[in-house]
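Hello,

Our lab assistant flagged a job as stuck in the queue for most of the afternoon. It eventually completed. Since we weren't sure the result was trustworthy after the delay, we are filing this so someone can double-check. Below is the sequence as submitted and the structure that was eventually returned. Let us know if re-running is recommended.
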Amino acid sequence: MASHRPPTSPIEVLPRDEAREHLITVADMLAKALDMTVRIPGTTWYIGLDPLLGLIPGIGDVIANLIGTVILGIATRLRLPRIVLARMSLNLLINGTVGAVPFVGDLFSIWFRSHTRNAVLLREAAMKSDRETHTDWFYVGGIIGGTVALLFLMIAVIVWVVFKLWAMISGG
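-- returned structure --
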């Protein structure tokens, strides 16, 4: 009777821990390239591709954030908790939104380093066995709460300005 063995694969599959560490290393390298490639002479600050790409009007910040989403994709592949993915997405959203403001956004990118923040979040979440994410919930809740508060403040300011303009126009 012939033995029935599964065929051997010519592709070497990395053990789970090695594959996980490899993906984390790729995320770290990508974050470093985007946030800390070159040291600014005379300072302790580093600049990466993100703020440099941000100097390209219109599409520079979009390109930098698209490259940064690779780190988010790695986090998804590692099956990190959804709240960590939400926090990482918010970091990209904040960087992309503020980054859209010419020059100021590029300085913000140098300071905020969203890709490095995301790589750190990825590493921490990927290495935790208990997947504790209370800090992530507070962060996301704070961002959402702050955004809602700013929205209401903006609405109040707009209503106030409209009433003042109406009073000036109507002679009241």
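-- support follow-up --
The delay was a queue issue, not a problem with the job. The result is valid. Residues 133-172 form one domain. The first strand starts at residue 38 and ends at 39.
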